[in-house]
Amino acid sequence: MNNYEIYIRPFGQHAILVEWPNKVEEAILEDILQFMAVLREKMDLQSWELVPAYNSLTLIRRDGVIDFSKFRQQIQDWYGAESTAIKSDRFLWKLPVCYDLDLGIDLTEVSEFLGTGVQEVIAAHTAHQYTVYGIGFLPGFMYLGGIPPSLEVPRKANPRLKVTKGSVGLAAKQTGIYPQDSPGGWNIIGNCSVPMFNVANDPPCFVSVGDKVQFYAIERAEYELHLIEAEVGIYKIEKIPLDA
């Protein structure tokens, strides 16, 4: 770990929030994930849940109230102790997106805002690998960072009451996939045919914080086929191991 200056504070009676510098950087995310690996060796994970996101780590105790003053010092000591890097399994997930205009309902508006063509937006969106900085808001909703400046568009001024499951959106420096129908204010540029969350699976969300995602464009017929394959459980998601 890099021994950043961290701030530890109570987050209710049953949780502690550990905060790193308020920056979106892969080095900070890596430090958080390494510290999580240390905590998994030190703590009883039957009693604790660890939730990483961007520049923070929330420790939630399932079975009792936390003695904050005592545990705060323990966390600080664990973080300051020397430790070797712990390798974890991480993957690049290749996810299909159909960018048809009836699915990418904001795609034309986004291209006009960016001063470029629809195909250029699609090409830029599929050219990059995005880092999973957090999973939340909805079960399985990935906050993907690493958007190039050429794709940065603000959130919509008036969020929609319903955004369709699978919708792929842009908002400021992030992109992501809506795992279920929900309200939302991101700019929708396509739809991913792969379900991102299924409570019947173990784990329900196959992607983890620290993984990477790259999108690729598919035609409408392939999109419809993927939906059928996913529904019957035979669609195979392409994943590539990453060095960690």
Automatic annotation (TrEMBL):
SUPFAM superfamilies documented for this protein: Cyclophilin-like (SSF50891), PH0987 N-terminal domain-like (SSF160467)
EC supergroup of this enzyme: hydrolase
Documented EC number(s): 3.5.2.9
GO molecular function, a single term: 5-oxoprolinase (ATP-hydrolyzing) activity
Keywords: ATP-binding, Hydrolase, Nucleotide-binding
Domain Carboxyltransferase: 6-207
Protein name, entry field: 5-oxoprolinase subunit PxpB
